[in-house]
Amino acid sequence: MWISDRLAACFLLAATLASAQQSDSASEGRLKGLSLEQLGNIEVTTVSKGPVRVSQTAAAIYVITQEDIRRSGVRSLPEALRLAPGVDVAQIDSVKWAVGIRGFESRLSRAVLVLIDGRSVYSPLFHGVYWEVQDTLLEDVERIEVIRGPGGTIWGANAVNGVINIITKSAHDTKGTVVSMGGGSVEQGMANVRVGGGNDRGFDYRFYAKGTDEAPEFHRDNRPFDDWRRAQGGFRTDWEIDSRDSLTVQGDLYNGLAGESVRVTSLSPPGSRVADQNAQLSGGNILARWQRTFSAGSDIQIQGYYDRVNRLQANQAEYRNTFDVDFVHHLRLKGGQDFIYGAGVRESPASLPSVVPTYVFSPNQRIDQLYTAYAQDTIPLLTDKLSFRAGAKLLHSSFSGFDIEPSARLLWTPTASGTVWGAVTRAVRTPSDTEDTLQNTAFVSASPLTFSRTSGDGRFTAETLLGYELGYRSLISKTVSIDIATFYNRYNNLLSLEPRTPYTEVDDGTPVLIYPYINGNGVQGTTKGFEITPNWKPRDWWRLEASYSWLLMDMSTAASSLDTTTVSSLERSSPRHQGRIQSYFDIFRNLELSATWRYVSVVPFYLVSGYQTADVRFGWRPVQHVEFAITGQNLLQPHHAEFGGDPGLLVGIKRNVFASLTLRR
What we know:
665 residues, mainly beta, 8% helix, globular, disordered N terminus
């Protein structure tokens, strides 16, 4: 109660102080942000792989800007995603995050495609994203484009429920030196440095390095396993070769130890144990992208990257190399048509050695392959009023063979400030190594010694989505805008666990009972919901944004399925309601305040109660190139649980206070 009262007083004080600062002579101290009209005119590339204004996109897209990231005080990429409506973000412990879009929230962001500067970080091992190894300097992020809904026609397999595209700044925009350091109650220490420069011949560069040391979160059973530390460095170069050609080369290296709790199964008594130890995480990537412009609206782009993953945990290991090449040709046709086509090849050889005999990939050496080709055309039906976009992507994966992802989108602009759009899209999630080649034995009971054993039978097919969307966005006035999106999705062939006949086997003279399961495609169902995002900027020095998301999931098993557990876990593992209110103030010329309130409803499957919490950030710039900030996170409770996922009791996410100092030169 004390914290709630003080937080309310803080809001009131900030409003009073800000009101006192609204004279013309204080214009330098006003909120340094885009107007609502300018926000709507931000050009995004995720929807069509070409620049399109947000206000003219036939998709539920939200842009998280660099100013949003800085002023909100977030410390990681998953935290930044909380700023987008319709994105479910829950912290599991100090290391792990669960992220979903329009449901299906999970430890590995099931069926959400995540890109960093066009490089896919989706793992074919577990059909998801390891968020603890996706990082960059937040200072260097230009924007994060979040598409809610299927994006498979452009981006291909696994862009089922959404696409998250993290785009960093050009090296041309990061010249100079930035040093930041800080520490707090949970993130106990961090240090970042970035150096950038260039010449007068179009060549620019930057190098960066960062390190962090995180304390464990709250554990009722006094098992603080989730402390971790991580270091990362990288570079980017941008070269404007001539008036038509440009080349970008960039790369990253990282290394870390991440504390985790893992249940390790053994066929001999006692059957299982919980191992609290560090996962060893390291890897790196390098990307090159060449672009040639032929004329206005006509260009080609060729991109290739190599990515290396090293991951060693108490029960599994993965050593993977990924090679990817992508070609895109964008051109203008007669009649104002905007046509784009392309193709891509991805080869991902992996070594998956056994760490324990109850968690085995067979074969443990394999090459995952994905080949794609697509085309998309935007046709103006009425100039500046009505346009139609249709496209399809053909893909072939080493898991499930050929599949197709078509889409059709209609954009209507009845007024200069209002847009209505609708879409029908089919998307697929290809099988992963886990569903295809993993045999996982899990402990059930000690008397008699009983285990479950889940494996693939080589017949698991791609999961499919047929999605229907309708949206409206409008700049109601110079100070008020609104964005509304609704959706209805039908899913088929979702993962199910199909029981087989139990049997007994003998291990070292000890009889054990085995309940076998096969990975099947026996779950189907629908999701529906909406997201609404109003935005109000009553003064130059004050901006308010809110969002509310509602979701209803209705899953069932197919007539041929004997699964009895998956439906409940899918329906009950994502919150039905989410809300957010964010306020940005400039109090004085060099003092700013940001405050965020969040509400998340109950997550029944993990026994997580609904909660509300708040973050507050004060930023002070005593001189031009120096910034000092104090951020308080999760201020309304000492700790609260957000998600399940580890053996043992739920982990409480602590209240965190963090101070940082940033020097720019």
